Amino acid sequence: MITGYGHFVQLAESLQWDETAIDLTADTEAWPKLEQEESDQVLGLLAGFCIGETSVATHLTSFHGAATTEDRMDQVLQAQARDEARHARFFDRVIREVVGVPGDTMTERVDALRDRVSPDLVELFEERLPAVAADVAEDSDNLTAAVGLYHMILEGVVLTAGQHALLETLKGLSVGMPGTHKGMELVLRDERWHIGFGSRVIQSADIVDDQMEELLTQGVKAASAWGDLISQDDIAKVEHLHQRRLRSVGIKFW
Amino acid sequence: MTVEQTEARPEAKRWLCEMCGFIYDPEEGDPDSGIPPGTPFEDIPDDWMCPICGAEKSDFRALEPGEFPEM
């Protein structure tokens, strides 16, 4: 059972943070001192977040108009869009100021990083998400399917796996990157309520059998979208959490 | 439900995950994690995690009776 939409509106207001207030000085000093393997791992994960957060910040706006039956739901979506834009700015700030990725705009910097991540991850965020966002913009009846992909798969599986992997990687570095770690923790905190909200939408929807099956199989497949950047153990953990989450919102598949 | 039945069965205390809004209801438990129905929140192992967001048990707080009536 998940609480009502009003809770998420209040929660979002209480969790605001400023990405420009995070001190990246130590991170900037640490970056050139990292081992090649360490910097490759961190940059691969950051690249995935830059691509993912930029895409979700862009396409979540299509969901707003679809939530016409529930004003509070629309308020939550607007609060979430504000979070996603902040996340995109935070990761862009890290790759610009700490890593020194070239490019005059966020788009150019994202373009410069695309080869760092697997084609599966790019496809999820840059092809499948825009497609479901377009479906929602065309017909609000597609909102549940869009939330299924966006909140349950992209956020609940792909980004969750990446967040935990990045936090673990940062924790084990030979030279610390405390600003990046702090920002990642704040992003993870935001994503928890986003996933709770998406779960609430799914819990309230009339999910038919083929949609249930799709949510399960898509989630299991998406857990591997980071390729070698995430361990098999972490993939198994996020798959397990995905299955628990679906059961908790009333989706029976066993 | 009669008045007598209501008085005989006080509402079980539910707990809210402050991170994601999940509500633990002792009457339902969390069978997927080995927590059978009827288990009070206090009796759940400390390493149990929220089934929605993976938050820790310490991220939950007790709900007051009637709190979040819009569910």
UniProtKB/TrEMBL annotation, chain B:
Name the Gene3D superfamilies on file.
2.20.28.10
Keywords from UniProt, A to Z, are: Electron transport, Iron, Metal-binding, Transport
The UniProt entry, under InterPro entries, shows:
Rubredoxin-like_dom, Rubredoxin_dom, Rubredoxin_ET, Rubredoxin_Fe_BS
What cofactors does the UniProt entry give for this protein?
Fe(3+)
Per the UniProt entry, what are the Gene Ontology biological process annotations, in alphabetical order? alkane catabolic process
The segment(s) forming the Rubredoxin-like domain are: 12-63
Under the heading SUPFAM superfamilies, the entry gives: Rubredoxin-like
Q: Name one GO molecular function term.
A: iron ion binding
> What family does the database annotate?
Belongs to the rubredoxin family.
State the function annotated in the UniProt record.
Answer: Involved in the hydrocarbon hydroxylating system, which transfers electrons from NADH to rubredoxin reductase and then through rubredoxin to alkane 1 monooxygenase.
Q: What is this protein called?
A: Rubredoxin
